[in-house]
Amino acid sequence: MTRLLGIIGYPLGHSLSPVFQQAALDALRLDVRYERWETPPDSLVERLRSLRQPDVLGANVTVPHKEAVIPLLDAVDEWAQTVGAVNTIVNRDGLLTGYNTDSVGFLQGLTEAGFDPRGVSALLLGAGGAARGVALALAREGVASIAIANRTAERAQALAGLVARHGPRTEALPLGGAALREAALRSQLIVNTTTLGMLHSPGESASPLSPAWIPASALVYDLVYNPLETPLLREARRAGARTQGGLAMLLHQGAAAFVLWTGREAPVDVMRSVLRQVLGV
Ligand code: NAP
Question: Which of 33, 101, 176, 208 keeps 20 to 30 A from 55, CA to CA?
Answer without folding.
Answer: 101
